[in-house]
Design brief:
Structural class: alpha/beta
Distance between the termini: 25 Å
Strand order of the largest sheet: 1-2-3
Oligomer: single chain
Shape: globular
Mean pLDDT: 90
Helix content: 25-40%
Low-confidence stretches: none
Number of strands: 3
Radius of gyration: 17 Å
Length: 132
């Protein structure tokens, strides 16, 4: 977080731009709620008080996707704004030689946009008042 202040916030201030805050977007964690707990801890200690919102990691194809979203909400009730799961997929990841993102290694190159379970999970976002 200290690098963010030096690399982003101070240069913006030097240009006369008032930085009001940022949104932490998931960084492909093993557990989305654990990542939120970790960043919330840094916010509480003042290491990154500029974080005003979260977009957390959540696999919407899981049968437990709604429960996972509720778990994310409990981890950060005031800051959770949405969820993300990297979908860039034109087949299995091949070391950056195609448009498939390295994040798809979490789901072995499955094209989620063609998965009925993804559609079910996506539809449940509205109940949670979250974006994707």
């Amino acid at each position: 977080p200290e690098h963010y202040v030096a690399d982003v916030i101070r240069p913006l201030a030097d240009l006369g731009i008032h930085f009001r805050g940022s949104v932490h977007v998931e960084a492909m964690p093993d557990d989305g709620a654990d990542e939120l707990d970790w960043v919330e801890g840094m916010i509480e200690t003042g290491r990154c008080s500029y974080v005003k919102g979260f977009v957390a990691s959540c696999d919407l194809t899981l049968e437990t996707a709604e429960e996972e979203m509720e778990r994310l909400r409990r981890a950060s009730p005031a800051r959770l704004r949405g969820v993300r799961w990297i979908l860039n997929c034109v087949g299995k990841y091949r070391g950056g030689t195609t448009a498939t993102h390295v994040g798809t290694l979490r789901h072995d190159g499955v094209d989620y946009l063609r998965e009925p379970d993804f559609e079910r999970g996506l539809a449940s976002l509205e109940k949670q008042n979250l974006s994707f």
